[in-house]
Design brief:
Its cofactor is pyridoxal 5'-phosphate. Belongs to the class-I pyridoxal-phosphate-dependent aminotransferase family. It comes from Leucobacter edaphi. GO terms for molecular function: pyridoxal phosphate binding; transaminase activity. This protein has 396 residues and is α/β, with parallel strands linked by helices. Helices cover 42% and strands 14% of the residues. The chain folds into 2 domains: 146 residues, Aspartate Aminotransferase, domain 1, CATH 3.90.1150.10; 239 residues, 3-Layer(aba) Sandwich (Aspartate Aminotransferase, domain 2). The chain has 13 helices and 13 strands. It has an 8-stranded mixed beta sheet, sandwiched between helices. The radius of gyration is 21 Å and the shape is globular. It starts with 15 loop residues before the first helix and ends with a helix. The structure holds pyridoxal-5'-phosphate (PLP). The site of pyridoxal-5'-phosphate has 14 residues, from helix 5.
């Protein structure tokens, strides 16, 4: 066999797979998952939308369409993006197979091997997995309870002339659950302009807010087309639809659509037609209200259990949206070891060890708790087990 391309050195399975496989045992209460709750999938409404797509609309919805996506869905989404404060016509938006494909295509468009990608510290593992084949170097930007720290971003940009792309998750971050302030959003876009880098604004949790409507997008501060805003139906309708979208400058959308044409031609016309029907026939905003209520209830339950059970030396920020909460243990606690040796085998509970979420310099004292799919009684029970396991782990 010939040697595989050098990019393949960066393509490997993640180390947490093995640990999460241990947690797959049904009597382990796992806070490891990041999947949305299947009870919230609007299956009946989607069935009606697919029936119409396969009935009177079949000639169109079973046919090829544009690489940018089905025109009527682009129009509907552009209208929603305008309502969310972005300047957006259908020419500024195209459909992709999940936010994950947006990460891939934006990486393909901009990155030469050795270019520097700036990420939050920590960041979404799938973002790194998506960009790795383009052989970038990563620099982590310090993050606190209010998102990426722009002063540190400036320092890192100054120190790295090959910086090309900032990858950020400003709303209800995965894994930390925190939200970037409006002031920081404005500053991050200004810094990107000053240092001539592009921004990938990955926002799949944006519509899962529990309190006030989310803060303005980074895209809304973009004056020269350097922000790629990515939204997704994965957490709001269903991830199996593999439907997400990118908002960007019209010329760049055309270029990205050429890359999409090269890789998979277009999203499924049928899925796009069904989603378009769903948006036309159903009250999507009422559906969003329902799922926000559902996840807010789980968040409240999780936080109440943490308050009641958890040792005071473990810190966390109450997330204002999304599906995750980040536990910060004292620095000398190695959560990989804690999970492997104590929590999973003895206390039958799991979360994702924090070390998996760093683009450089992993920290071992952190952990991600996902609360979307667990019933509330399992949440309380699971947190009690974490607290008991922690007390036992600390006392040896
Ligand atoms: C921050 C972030 N970006 C992207 C994705 C991928 O989403 P999609 O299903 O739209 O590809 C996820 C999924 O968990 C995510 O958490």
């Amino acid at each position: 066999m010939p040697q595989q391309a050098s990019r393949m050195q960066l393509v490997r399975p993640s180390a947490i797979r093995e640990l999460l496989a241990l947690a797959a045992d049904p009597d382990v209460i796992s806070f490891g998952g990041g999947y949305p709750d299947p009870d919230l999938f609007p299956a009946r409404e989607l069935a009606a939308a697919y029936a119409r797509a396969l009935g009177e609309q079949a000639a169109v919805s079973l046919q090829y369409t544009h690489s940018e996506g089905l025109p009527r869905l682009r129009e509907q989404l552009a209208e929603r993006m305008r309502a969310d404060g972005m300047e957006c016509g259908p020419e500024h938006l195209f459909l992709v197979q999940g936010a994950q494909q947006a990460i891939d295509l934006v990486g393909k468009m901009w990155l030469e091997p050795g270019d520097v990608v700036l990420t939050e510290e920590p960041t979404f593992l799938g973002g790194l997995v998506g960009l790795n084949p383009y052989e970038p170097e990563y620099r982590a930007v310090r993050t606190d309870d209010h998102g990426m720290d722009p002063d540190h971003l400036e320092e890192v940009l100054r120190a790295n002339p090959r910086a090309k792309l900032i990858y950020t998750i400003p709303d209800f971050h995965n894994p930390t659950g925190v939200t970037m302030t409006t002031e920081r959003r404005r500053r991050v876009v200004e810094l990107a302009r000053e240092h001539d880098v592009v921004i990938l604004e990955d926002a799949p949790y944006r519509e899962l807010y529990f309190g006030a409507a989310p803060l303005p997008t980074l895209k809304s501060f973009d004056t020269d087309g350097r922000v790629f805003h990515v939204g997704s139906f994965s957490k709001t309708l269903a991830p199996g639809l593999r439907t997400a979208w990118v908002v960007a400058d019209a010329e760049l959308i055309e270029r990205l659509a050429l890359l999409k044409l090269a890789s998979d031609t277009q999203n499924s016309t049928l899925n796009m037609a069904a989603i378009s029907n769903y948006l036309e026939e159903q009250d999507y905003d009422a559906h969003l209200d329902r799922i926000r209520d559902h996840y807010r209830g789980k968040r409240d339950h999780t936080v109440a259990a943490l308050r009641a059970e958890l040792s005071d030396d473990i810190r966390y920020v109450t997330p204002q949206g999304g599906l995750f909460l980040w536990l910060e243990f004292p620095e000398d606690v190695d959560t990989d070891r804690f999970l492997r040796e104590v929590l999973i085998p003895e206390y039958r509970v799991a979360f994702v060890p924090g070390s998996s979420f760093y683009s450089e310099n992993p920290r071992y004292s952190r952990g991600r708790l996902g609360f979307p799919t667990l019933p509330v009684d399992r949440i309380s029970q699971g947190i009690r087990r974490i607290a008991e396991g922690y007390n036992a782990f600390r006392s040896v």
